[in-house]
Prior knowledge:
The chain is α+β, with helices and mostly antiparallel strands. It has helices at residues 2-26, 31-46, 52-59, 127-133, 155-162, 191-198, 204-207, 218-228, and strands at residues 63-89, 96-124, 137-139, 146-148, 167-173, 176-179, 186-189.
Amino acid sequence: xxRQSVLQTALFLLCFAFLAVTQEIAQAATPEAxxxxxxxILREMAxxxxxxxxxxxxxxxxxxxxxxxxxxxxxxxxxxxxEGLLLKRDPQSGxxxxxxxxxxxxxxxGIQIGIQSTALVLVITNDRGMQGFMGDNVTLGGDLAVAxxxxxxxxxxxxxxxxxxxxxxxxxxKGLFAGLSLEGAVVDTDQxxxxxxxxxxxxxxxxxxRRATDQRMAPLTREIANLLKKK
Length: 231
């Protein structure tokens, strides 16, 4: 029994270390670096043939959340952590608002080992989804319905999918583009990054009432425009 207790303690400490490494690797990017990395990942996604349906969804979206690097680490117990940003879209004018900065975190249990980094784009399809992202935190699959985003060139698939979930997720890992399941992941407002970027305390509601016309946002809004040209 004593040996079993020692092994359990060792396993717990090892899992804790993996979770700590996950957060340490994924964090510490400045707001400006997150914007630049978000523009880069959208440019890479736009090159994929299967990205056309994601573009179809974004054309009618209420907003998007982009996490350039979500690091997942695990040894039996696993965790993921990433930092990103949120943009709100006015469907009538097509204008973008923000950015408000976010974090994403989650845990998992099962046969898993190693560390992997994945870029993530969440397409927010309705007002309920946007409201959820403006709170202190929201659990994907709990507070808001989330599903792996459809891929391919079928516009009808995208139209049908919008009726079923508030959030659709897309990932890019090692050059592979696909939908991704995020059940149980928690998205939270990054107050420190918002203050660093906007130079004062602001709520997500206040931030997302501001047009994304700052020169620092130009590379990202340009890549979004290029993506939306994809047929």
